[in-house]
Each structure stands twice: as C-alpha cells, then as structure tokens.
Design brief:
Layout lengths: L1 H11 L1 H14 L1 H8 L11 H11 L3 E6 L5 E7 L2 E7 L6 E4 L4 H12 L4 H29 L13 H31 L29 H4 L6 E5 L10 E5 L2 E5 L6 E6 L2 H14 L4 H11 L1 H23 L10 E6 L4 H15 L4 E5 L12 E7 L13 H5 L9 E8 L8 H12 L3 E2 L4 E4 L3 H15 L15 E11 L7 E8 L25 E4 L8 E4 L9 E6 L5 H7 L6 E7 L13 E6 L3 H9 L7 E7 L9 H9 L5 E6 L8 H7 L1 H9 L3 E6 L1 H15 L6 H6 L3 E5 L1
Parallel strand pairs: 9-10, 9-11, 11-12, 12-13, 12-14, 21-22, 21-24, 22-23, 24-25
Antiparallel strand pairs: 1-2, 1-5, 2-3, 3-4, 5-6, 6-7, 7-8, 15-16, 15-20, 16-19, 17-18, 17-20
Helix pairs in contact: 1-6, 2-5, 2-10, 2-11, 3-10, 6-7, 7-9, 7-10, 7-11, 19-21
C-alpha cells in the first residue's frame, strides 16, 4: 500500500513538488544573507529608546523603525517630501545602505507560494505541500521496511544505482522535508480558513492622551524599558497632532506610548496562538532561524534528484513487469490479450494464457483494456479477459475501454473471444463481459468462440475454456491457474453471537483469532500463535470450506489492529460455506486468506459519511464506525427483519452513539407492525440527505443486490433537484457499493 501511495503521489505531482522545493531552497538563502548583514547587540545592551534617539539624530523625519526577524534595523523616513527606507546600525543610528527587497527573491517567493498565480495558485501550492507530507510519511515507512525496522534506519543500506541514491538521499532529507511540508500545509490551511487564524491582539486606541509637550523619544520610559532585541516595530506619532501616540509592537505584545509622559497605554499581550503561528512561520521560512532555513533548504535541494531517481525506479519496475511477460510490440503482435481487472487477480489467468501462447510460437501482447491501441496491424487473434465490478460495471483497468473502442480500426482477419469473470450470485453476472462481446461484434470483428464466463475464479472452468479454445484456434493449451494465494492462514473461532433463528434467517457475528499451533510448538508461548495478517474493515476474507477449493468471500467488520478478525454471515439455503461457518463451535478452525478491497472505504476528511446496509451487510459498516476515532459525521441507515430477533450490533451501535463515533442511526424492520425497508427511511429523510450530499457527503452501500438496487433508485430520485445522479457520484468516488 505504501509503495502505491508513494509512487502515485510522486508521479502525479512531480513537477509541482520540484518547483516548490527548488524555489524554497532558493528562498532559504535569504534569511542567512540578511543575518550576515545585521548587527545584533547583546541582550539588554540597547533599548528601543536609545535606538530611536540615535536614529532621529540622523533621520529627523523618521516615521517608523522596524526590526526584521533577521535582526536588521530598517528606518522609514521622509526627506524633503520624498519617502525613503534605509538599513541602520543600531549602535550608532547611521545608515548603512538603502533598504530595497530583492526583486529576484520577491519573484521566487511568488513562484513558491502561488506558482505566479493568485488564490488558485496558493491553493495548488498548499495541496502540493500536503502531497509532500504524504510522500514523506509513505517514504518513511518504505525506508523502515527496507532497513529492517525503525530501529535500523541509521544502519548502512545495501543496493546500487537509482534505488541506493534514492534511499540514501531520502534518509538524509526526510526530517527537513517533513518539517517544511507540515508547516507549509498548516500555513495554507490558515490562509483558506481550514485552520483557525491567530487571534488579533491589537489594542484599542487609548481614550485619553495627555496632549502635553512631547518629550524626546530617547527619554520615554516605556521605550527605555523595552529591549531592542524584542522589538518588532515602532511607529512615530504624526508631528502636527498633539493627541497622536507612538505605536509599539514587540515580541511580548502591542500597545501605545504617550509622547509626553512616556507611559505605556492599552497594552495587549501576544496570545499563545499568535506565538505558535509565529513559530510555525519561522520554521517554514527560516526568518529568525537562518541556520534552520539553510538546513531545510539543503533538504529541499534533494527533491529534484529524488523525483528523477524515483521515476527511474518506477519505470524500471514497470518495464520489468512487461519484460517478464515477454510482450511483443503493437506493430508485430499477432495475438493480443486485453485484461479488465479491479484488484489484478484477472492478470493471473491472463499470464497463463500469455505464456502458453508464446510457447506455441505466437507473438503476444498483454495490456490493460484501457490501453487499447487504435489498431493492431499484425494481429489475427484478440482475447479479452475481464472481471466485472460491483453489479455489472467495468473494472478499474477497463472503465474507458468502450470510449476507446469507438476509435478502433479493424484489421483484416482479426477474430476475438471474450472470457468474463464474476459471481453467479449477482443478477448481472458478467454483464460487462457480455457488453464487451456485443460491442466487438457490432464493429465487425469475427468471434472465435461465444463469450464464456468463469464463476468465482474457478480453476476448473478456466481449464475447460482452455481446452475448448485450443480446438478452435488449433493451439495446444492446458490452462491451469489457482487464484487462491498460497499464503493461506488458519483462524480459530473465539466467540459468536447468533441472531434471526426465530424468523428463519439465521445470521451470526463470528470473531476469530490466530489459530493456536498444535504439538510441541503449542507449549512455547512465543511460537504458539502466529500474528494476524494486515487488513482493514471493508477488506474481504476468502474462506475455503472443507472439501471445496473454491473460496467464498466475506466482508471484514474490523481491522487487524483490533487483534481479531470479525465477519457477519447469514446462513444461505444450501450454502456450503455459510453452512460450514454457522456450524462452527468455539475453538474450531477455518482456513482463509485476505483479499484487499481498497475501493470500499470511507473517504478521509470531515465530510459526512452516509452508511447504508441491510442484514449481514452491516458488518463492514460497523467496522468503519468503530474506526471513526476522529468523530467525523457518520450516519447509518440499516434494515433488518425484527428488532427482537436480528438487531445486529445493537449494543455496539448504542455505544458508538454515546461516544460520537456514530452521529445518527436510522433503522427499518420489515417483520413488524410498522413494516418498512431501508429505502423507505432514506425517502423520509430525503431533504436531510440531499443537503449532506450537496455539502460533499460520501455514500457507502453494503448488502444484498436487491436492497442495493432499491437504494440506488431512491438516491437517484432524491438527487434530481441537485442536477446530479448516482452514476456521477460513482465517478467522483462518492458512491461506493459492496454488493453480493
């Protein structure tokens, strides 16, 4: 997972990251240059009154004195009606040169903050900083994995080439880059109102000023008691206004000074939030911390090299995959295999076909369906192996195939065969494969064979298809592929909660732990139990029932960090696996494997999450609520049969409501006097749901196909006033389904 996050984020934002990092490295030099030209008196050696008196001696029409974070003193003055600004020596008050911010640094700062744009550029720069945070965190996990653990991060790394360069530089620069990215993300969040701005500590203008004869600035008590090194700025009163005052801003706060008495008026101390904001600003810019700025700038200089070496690593990895398939190129391939897959499992079947066609002397090209070329000039055979996503939709690697097919040029003699992968429990079993078969036929390609379908990745059905295909194309094929991972593990039933027996709908919540070993190993406490593999709520466990090598998949209601594995299973009439699970007794074991399901997850952030399910579909939804430690708005709509017999997870849901992990719970029961289904509750709450969706809410639906179809319809209806649809929300990743 971390490698995927790291690669995708880096590739998508490479140019932006390099631009921000390089400009930041240039800007990091500015505080050091300013500091090198500054004279810093010892603490307590010079007061603001002494500085102001010296400055006024040389600049009689002084309007403002400012101390920059670097320690440079700047005086703003008027000379014969012409304003000016000079840097001055705080020990003498003499000017040491005019003060003119560098046009180069000003341009680079605009590039760094906003890509030379306005607010749109600032937003993009902020997002780039957030991507850099993600890159640093994912890179840290990858480094730890490569080093052999967090404690081994400082040990010498092995390897050569781009991988070695990338890892060594990342290890040196990661702290500086993370500091810069975190502070930049925070400052951008403040800019756009996503984080609170520091509260103003501006004092109210004094109601009473003596208006007496002004004293010399060097004699004013409040200024004599203020050390120069704490000064931010001193603004002089207007000379012709007897009621005007000095404005004094320091590290400690802001106030006014009476020009006659020298008393400090209406002083407001700097808030802790303002001090924190100032610290974060210094950490990001290096202003006031010039040495840290140089270190962070040096870290930023590694980003271009990291970007180039990381891209090379990604390309080598991608190329190695292609070479391992012995892919022919588009111009010379006589056999093309296109693959539609959601989680890459279909590629295992495609690889077997590819290798056997190559062994038979064919020049084979295997690619994603989305990578359909405009033509295959030398090809005579086209095979499409595609899974179906959800209830009949295209999988991730085929979601633009139909559009590309409109621009496909047919070559003479090209024939095709389609093999679909799905689950017969779905009403639209392998529908996308059917649609692809029909579309290829419509554009004029000839069929090698009728479309065939594989139920639940059956090895036997795949082998049967291979024998049938071999006779059609006169190529010897023996397609043997076991999609079940070899890394199976055993689980032991810890406890169970049974529901629904009274209404003939037995449903159980089953909680498993790592299976204890038998034999001598069971007497060794450090070897008796293997840890659980990593998984998240919403992932799938493939359970292999005794005497049947075909796995059945169940959604997980917890994460591996919970220390157990939990599923919610309804017993199906004649169901081999559900019957096996329902008959389990505490202490008995099952065999299975984890199938990641990353496309069924609540989106991060503070937008509302609307969870909809019925029956056993509540399992992963309960898992999402359990992990809602941030207490983001989360609403559950769930349907059962009778609250006395099958109110699944009722105690847990009550607890989640109490501690705010669950914001709202709406139930519907179909075997009561007030008979209702979950769709009815959604319709009743249409205005509220519509408002949440308009504000960016995400919807996750889990349960049986019939329920999901009904929910999809009522959601579509309530979306009409918004001018959108479920299909649109799906494309935006805001409507996700886990349907069986």
């Amino acid at each position: 997972m971390w490698r995927t996050v790291h690669s995708i984020a880096g590739l998508l934002a490479a140019v932006l990251l390099i631009t921000v990092a390089t400009s930041g490295a240039i800007l990091s030099v500015s505080p050091a240059l300013d500091r090198s030209g500054a004279t810093i008196p010892a603490q307590g050696a010079v007061s603001v009154a002494q500085l102001a008196g010296r400055v006024v001696n040389h600049y009689p029409q002084t309007e403002q004195i400012k101390r920059l974070p670097s320690g440079v003193i700047v005086v703003y003055y008027v000379n014969d009606g012409t304003p000016g600004a000079d840097r001055v020596d705080p020990l003498t008050g003499l000017g040491v040169g005019s003060y003119q911010p560098s046009p180069l640094f000003r341009w680079v700062k605009d590039l760094h903050r906003a890509f030379l744009r306005d607010d749109g550029g600032r937003l993009l720069a902020g997002l780039t900083a957030a991507v850099m945070v993600l890159m640093c965190l994912s890179g840290a996990f990858l480094l730890a994995r490569r080093s052999g653990g967090w404690r081994s991060l400082l040990k010498p790394l092995t390897g050569t080439g781009d991988q070695r360069v990338h890892s060594e530089l990342a290890r040196l620069a990661i702290i500086g880059l993370l500091l810069s990215a975190l502070t930049g993300t925070y400052l951008s969040a403040v800019r756009f109102g996503l984080a609170p701005e520091p509260m103003s500590n501006e004092p109210a203008y004094p109601a009473e000023v003596t208006g007496g004869t002004p004293a010399t600035v060097s004699s004013l008590k409040a200024l004599r008691e203020t050390d120069l090194n704490s000064l931010h700025e001193l603004v002089f009163p207007y000379p012709h206004d007897p009621l005007d005052v000095y404005s004094l801003s320091t590290r400690q706060g802001s106030g006014f000074v009476d020009p006659s008495t020298g008393e400090l008026l209406e002083f407001e101390a700097t808030t802790s939030h303002s001090r924190l904001h100032g610290l974060i600003l210094s950490l990001h810019t290096g202003e006031g911390l010039w040495w840290l700025g140089l270190l962070v700038g040096a870290s930023s200089l590694t980003v271009p090299v990291l970007g180039i070496s990381g891209t090379c690593i990604w390309w080598h990895r991608r190329s190695s995959v292609d070479r391992s398939l012995n892919n022919a190129d588009i111009a010379t391939a006589d056999t093309v295999i296109l693959v539609g897959s959601e989680h890459n499992t279909t590629y295992g079947f495609a690889r077997v076909l590819h290798e056997q066609m190559v062994a038979a002397g064919r020049r084979v090209l295997t690619a994603d369906m989305n990578d359909l070329a405009q033509a295959y000039p030398s090809a005579s055979m086209l095979f499409v192996l595609t899974a179906t996503y959800g209830d009949g939709g295209p999988p991730a690697s085929a979601d633009s195939f139909m559009l590309k097919l409109n621009h496909f040029h047919i070559t003479h003699g090209l024939s095709f065969a389609v093999l679909g992968f799905g689950d017969r429990q779905y009403a639209n079993y392998c529908r996308f494969a059917v649609e692809v078969d029909e579309a290829l036929g419509r554009i004029g390609l000839e069929r090698l064979d009728e479309a065939a379908f594989i139920d639940r990745q059956s090895s036997r059905m795949f082998n049967d298809w291979g024998h049938r295909l071999a006779k059609r194309i006169n190529v010897p094929l023996s397609l043997v592929h076991d999609p079940v991972p070899s890394t199976r593990f055993k689980l032991e039933l810890l406890d169970r909660a049974d529901f629904g027996a009274q209404i003939n709908a037995p449903t159980s919540i089953l909680r498993f732990g790592p299976a204890r070993k038998t034999g001598m190993a069971s007497y060794l406490p450090w070897r008796g139990v293997r840890p659980l593999p990593e998984f998240e709520a919403g992932d799938l466990i493939g359970v292999i029932p005794p005497g049947d090598e075909t796995a059945r998949y169940y959604s997980l209601a917890c994460s591996s960090t919970d220390g157990l594995l939990e599923i919610c299973v309804r017993k199906q009439p004649g169901g081999v696996c559900s019957g096996f699970l329902h008959n389990l007794k505490t202490g008995e074991q099952i065999q299975g494997f984890i199938q990641p399901n990353p496309d069924f997850r609540p989106a991060p952030g503070g937008h509302p999450i609307i969870l909809i399910g019925a029956g056993a579909g509540i399992g992963p939804l309960a898992g999402f609520i359990r992990k809602n430690n941030a207490r983001n708005p989360m609403f559950l709509y769930w349907g059962g049969r009778n609250p006395q017999s099958d109110f699944l997870y009722q105690p847990e849901l009550d607890r989640y409501l109490d501690d705010s992990r669950l914001t709202g719970l709406t139930t519907a029961f179909s075997r009561t006097d007030n008979r209702a289904y979950v769709q009815d509750r959604i319709t009743e709450d249409a205005p509220t749901l519509r408002d949440m969706i308009e504000k960016g809410a995400q919807i996750l639906v889990c349960g049986e196909r019939e329920m999901a179809t009904g929910v999809r319809q009522v959601i579509d209806d309530l979306l009409v006033p918004l001018g959108t649809s479920v299909d649109t929300l799906k494309r935006e990743g805001r409507y996700l389904e886990d349907v069986y």
